[in-house]
Amino acid sequence: MTEGRSYLPIPLDGFELCHPREQSDFEIVNVLIDGTPRAANWSPLDVIIIDDEFGRKLKRSDAPWMTDGCLVFGERVLERLGGLLRDQGELLPLACRQRNLWAFNPNAVLPCLDEAKSEVLRLDTGRIFHVARYSMKEHVVAGHLLYKCDVFRVSPTFVGQEFVDAWRAANLEGLEFDEVWRSF
Fold first, then answer.
1. How many Cα atoms occupy the beta-carbon half-sphere of 142 within 13 Å?
2. Residue 184 included in any domain
3. Does residue 63 lie in a domain region?
């Protein structure tokens, strides 16, 4: 078996962001990008590209950052990694006046967190609200390049080593990857 690794994508400093046109729609994003199939009834969310922050021009991103639970991809990503992404979930079109963008909705929501080996913080109800150190169940995440974790109300999108390698080989810009777990 090959070594397993899980990463959290994070935005590179100085690159564009993507926000819902209405701030209240961030919660809609949290509810809709949850691994439940949406394509059949999807109505594109109205979004804008933030390309200026505090008077500083931001660089064009292939993945303008919205949230860790909703990865947004532009046309270059679809051209270079579209097949891989479609195998792992749905690419849901967004309504953006500046350019074509898609939200990625992973089709895998996995019981992957090994809670006994992870360092977690819980609410009084017992629900996990923060993980300081992840330990994944290797047999559960094996073969999944993009996925969500079932213990969170709003899960970040995790990616595996194969996705990270494909992103880098495609020379895409705007994301870096924080390794949060490895199997050894």
1. 8
2. no
3. yes
DSSP classification of residue 9: E
Q: Which has the closest alpha carbon to 74: 145, 177, 167, 157?
A: 167
Domain count, the chain: 1
Measured CA to CA, the distance from residue 105 to residue 63 in angstroms comes to: 14
Q: Which domain holds residue 155?
A: 5-179
Specify if 19 maps to a domain. yes
Q: In whole angstroms, what is the distance from residue 128 CA to residue 82 CA?
A: 33
Q: Tell me the per-residue pLDDT of 134-159, one tens digit each, with 9 for 90 and over.
A: 999 999 999 999 999 999 889 999 99
Task: Assess if residue 173 is contained within a domain.
Answer: yes
Tokens at 169, concatenated:
């080989």
Q: DSSP string covering 46-101, please?
A: EEEEE-EETTEEPBP-SS-B-BTTBEEEEHHHHHHHHHHHHHHEEEEEEEESSS-E
CA distance 31 to 126: 21
pLDDT tens track for 86-116: 999 999 999 999 999 999 999 999 999 999 9
